[in-house]
Each structure stands twice: as structure tokens, then as C-alpha cells.
Amino acid sequence: MRIDIDRDVCIGAGQCALAAPKVFTQDDDGLSELLPEAEAEGGAGPAAGPMVGEAARACPVQAITVT
Ligand code: SF4
Fold first, then answer.
1. Labelling 42: which of 1, 24, 28, 53 has CA 20 to 30 A away?
2. pTM of this prediction?
3. Which residues have C-beta atoms less than 6 Å from ligand 1?
4. DSSP character string of 1-65
5. For residue range 32-65, what is the model confidence (pLDDT) as tens digits?
């Protein structure tokens, strides 16, 4: 599983961090970013889990791509 966040599209709604708090966080500007441990594993670690798909679906601007 690979997770990409299009930060040009992200509006900082925070739904991803709510849905998958072990994978996503928000930076100082409120934009979504992967937590370091998720980033280190290419988003594919055990922390990812099914909530990643939920986070992608929850994003109001489809900024998250899971492949
Ligand atoms: S849910 Fe979408 S718009 Fe909101 S912070 Fe996450 S990636 Fe950005």
C-alpha cells in the first residue's frame, strides 16, 4: 500500500487525521502529512490498516490516493 497526499489540493479539513490518526497528522498550516513512522514504511506499515481507505474516502477534496 502506498499513500500519496496531494498537498496542493488539501484544504486542511482534518478528516484524514480523524479517521486514521496513526497514519495522518496535520502540519502547522493544517495540511495533511504522513506521520514519520508511516512515511518510513511508505505508508504500508502495520499502522496503516483499513482506516487508511476510510481516510481517503473521508477527504472532501480527494487529496489522498491509496494504491
Ligand atoms: S481530509 Fe483531505 S483535505 Fe482534509 S486534511 Fe486530510 S487530505 Fe487534507
1. 28
2. 0.88
3. 5, 10-16, 26, 32, 59, 61, 63-64
4. --EEE-TTT-----HHHHH-TTTEEE-TTS-EEE-HHHHHTTT-STTTSTHHHHHHHH-TT--EE
5. 999 988 887 765 565 567 899 999 999 999 999 9
